[in-house]
Amino acid sequence: MLTYQFSEAGTSHVLAGRGNEDAQAVAAHGDVAFVFVADGMGSAARGGEAARAAVEAAAALVPWTYVPNEALRAPSLGFAVRAAFPIAYNSLIGAADRGGWDTRDMLTTFMCAGFDARSGRLEYGFCGDGGIVALTRGGKVRLLTKAARGARPGQTTPLHSCGDWLFGSCENVLAFFVCTDGLFERLCPGGRLPEATSIRGRRVRKLVKGLLRKPARLGGEQLRIVLDNALSSARPSEDDLGWLMDDVTDDRTLVLVSA
């Protein structure tokens, strides 16, 4: 199993002196991996701290809720993903209490994916406007999440909205990626995989599928170099994926996992 992680502060945050308000982590054990990604909300005073707290707590505790016993692997994977959300949420409440902060200042989106590379089973949960996209063993690309948009531009659903946590599963997965909204909007404009009815739509779909296939075609170190170059705003070389990432001013975070 190959895993790749990328996170970089967006130019809009760098210019504002805010730094990277995304957070990500991977906890891999044998042929099972858990991915955690959060995007601190810019409207919240401590959004970046909230994202880091949520991811760090979930990454530390969620693997301990998973039981690798053969008879329990599938149901335990889903249970662990669902456990990530109250763990992450309670970490925000605890951090706010310890710091004497208003919990409304600790707003972040949150996504968790649990992947069994042996069986190809992917369990996932999400809230907010990030995205999870999978490539099945049959070669089909599937968008698994639906971006939650608010009434105002840039508004979305935070982890605090417990009733809006959504969960699902996908079978026979070969690879998948989890990304925050800055990159997700380019890969899936409007929160949807583009239709292959236009030249741009076909080009973007090809790039999304190519991104999911890269781990199988490249070694770990080469994968890192190629994707770092494509995703970074300061990349030293241009390619088609880099073309798609041009002018993304938000923080750029993506985690890619392949069996």
CATH topology group? Phosphatase 2c, domain 1
Write down the domain tally: 1
User: Helix content range of the residues, please?
Assistant: 25-40%
Oligomer: single chain
First-residue to last-residue Cα separation: 4 Å
CATH level-four homologous superfamily name: PPM-type phosphatase domain
SSE order: EHEEHHEEEEEEHHHHE
What integer value in Å does the Rg equal?
17 Å
CATH level-1 class: Alpha Beta
**Uncertain runs:** none
Structural class: alpha+beta
Total helices: the number is: 7
State the total count of DSSP E strands. Answer: 10
Instruction: Tell me the major beta sheet.
Output: 5 strands, antiparallel
Shape type: globular
Task: Please provide a written account of the structure.
It is a single chain. The protein is an alpha+beta fold. It has one domain: PPM-type phosphatase domain (Phosphatase 2c, domain 1), CATH 3.60.40.10. Helix content is 37%, strand content 25%. It is built from 7 helices and 10 strands. Strands 1-10-9-6-7 form a 5-stranded antiparallel sheet. The chain has a 5-stranded antiparallel sheet with strand order 2-3-4-5-8, with helices on one face. α2 packs antiparallel against α3. The longest helix has 27 residues. The radius of gyration is 17 Å and the shape is globular. The termini are close together. The mean pLDDT is 91.
